[in-house]
Amino acid sequence: MTTVRTVQLPEVTLAYRESGRPDGPPLVLLHALGERAADWDVVLPDLAPDHHVYALDLRGHGDSGRTAEYGLERMRGDVLAFLDALGLARVDLVGHSMGGAVAHLLAQAAPERVDRLVLEEIPALYPRPASVPPEGAEEPAHFDWAMVRALKAQFDDPDPAWREGLTRITARTLAVAGGAASYVPQERIAELARLIPDCRLVTIEAGHLVHSSRPAEYVAAVAPFLAV
Predict the structure, then answer these.
(1) Where are the domains of the chain?
(2) Fold of 3-226
(3) Which residues are paired to 15 by β-bridges?
(4) pTM, 2 dp
């Protein structure tokens, strides 16, 4: 059973979906840019049947609040504030793409809060050719277009400290790559896996959307890593 809840944090109200074993170890799931917490439903409950799962709508997404300021560091701060608000001292943390960047920034800044870390299709970040910021669509979206523009600008010109800080991560880590069909440079994912001290790399030929395109293979790789 999944319950939809909200929590008021210092900067924003976050919505989240809570499921799993009430007394299980906590697992926090962070979605990709433009997605929402329900994106994980395809791999639940098989992903971590013994965990108490919290799938978040990050700021500017889904049912969470829209704010004047966006950025990976602010999202990292929101997740830390979420852990504090719910009294979660230490968690397993899974992030896809943008959510993976937020997850590894949190694991760098507060290594004592993360036990196991899964990073799906997020590379070591380097500057890239600037993309054209989307202007937004006429129809309503379940995310804030201002957030998309702010995050794309950060991914185009990332802070070098985000890459350098990967060496400070102490969590046991699994990096999941999508293989040749992904638009993400796979050599950069391999670099991320080398920089994190305790990291194993697995490739699932699925493209960028690994857990939604190949849910059974994703679960087969990730569930044993998260097993209690």
Answers:
(1) 3-226
(2) Rossmann fold (3.40.50)
(3) 6
(4) 0.97
